[in-house]
Amino acid sequence: MAAQSMAPQGENLLQKNADSFEGLTPQERDNLKVVMEELNGWDTQDVERVISVMAPDGIYQDMTQPPAHGHDEIREFGRKWVGGAPDFRVHVEQFVVQDDTVVNRGVISGTIKGEFWGLPATNKRFDLPYCQVAKVRNGKIVRIWDFSDSATLAYQVGWQEKPAYE
Question: pTM for this one?
Answer without folding.
Answer: 0.91
